Amino acid sequence: MPTTDRKPLLLDFEKPLAELANRIDQIRQLAAENGVDVSGEIRKLETRAMQLREEIFSNLSPSQRLQVARHPRRPSTLDYIQSISDEWMELHGDRCGGDDPALVGGVGRLGGQPVVMLGHQKGRDTKDNVARNFGMASPGGYRKALRLMEHAHKFGMPIITFIDTPGAWAGIEAEHQGQGEAIAYNLREMFCFDVPIICTVIGEGGSGGALGIGVGDRLMMFEHAVYTVATPEACAAILWKDAGKSPQAAVALKITSHDLKNLGIIDEILPEPIGGAHSDPLEAARTLKQSLLDNLDDLNRLTSQERRQLRYEKFRKIGVFTESVH
Q1: Is 292 helix (H, G, I), strand (E, B) or coil?
Q2: CA distances from 105 to 83, 219, 232 (A)
Q3: 324 burial class (0-12, 13-18, 19+ CB within 10 angstroms)?
Q4: Higher pLDDT, 16 or 310
Q5: Residue 224 main-chain phi, psi, to 5 deg
Q6: Phi and psi of 223, rounded to 5°?
Q7: How many CB atoms lie within 10 A of CB 306?
Q8: What gap in Å lies between CA 307 and CA 297, rounded to an integer?
Q9: Which of 180, 202, 221, 277 is the most exposed place for a label (fewest CB within 10 A)?
Q10: What is the pLDDT of residues 135-149, one digit of tens each?
């Protein structure tokens, strides 16, 4: 898991927290230099800092949640896999000539049960992001994911997916290699698998790139993650020819976990540590692991036919609406 002992990367709305933290450090330093006991004042300021953090992160706008979901130190797929699995072995290649680093996967054990885990993988810095194509998978990545899921289906292993991508790679080469077909094929096949499938949006879930590994019996989402048909910037550019209106688009798109839970698209919201998952990655991993184990326990009680039927019904309900007649 990423560590939290490095200097944090501040988001705009976190600046008041940084200013208060600096003030506390200055008081500590002055007190130490002058031999003055200010422990009472320090405790008051630390309590205020905690209250302020809670206030800020409990009232984030959709565009601010998007910033949290994109935080460069937010735990990634590999971070979570390494933290929650008892054993883990990454498998490579789509058996068609490629091995996309933007989508990773392999076999492991979760709570002692053999599982296949896979997901999008962003980089931790610019160099790593370029190597991982910023988590935007190619057709080969989705074919690798399908190969691993077919392996799970064959050997009766539950499938765990982690969604974190701004979208599938949209380059010309990706189109030449059949990007749309690869994603569509995954959608169809995931509806047919006999084994339990649990999908979790851990950061940014964008467009068909997210859907390519997003068909499951359970769809969970971290509290500050986002899930959307298009990025707010792209939506604003299309609708208003102005990417600067992305905050307005983020509200209209209903991208937050609470909006999507109310719409019946996701099944469960996973609470994050105050300050976001990147502020305490191990706590976020513990929350994720417990939820995965609980859901697996429920799904394992069903027959494969029952799971397929419920999976079908779950997605048939998405997009249902009621018109009022005046």
Answers
A1: helix
A2: 15, 18, 29
A3: exposed
A4: 310
A5: -100, 10
A6: -50, -45
A7: 12
A8: 13
A9: 180
A10: 999 999 999 999 999
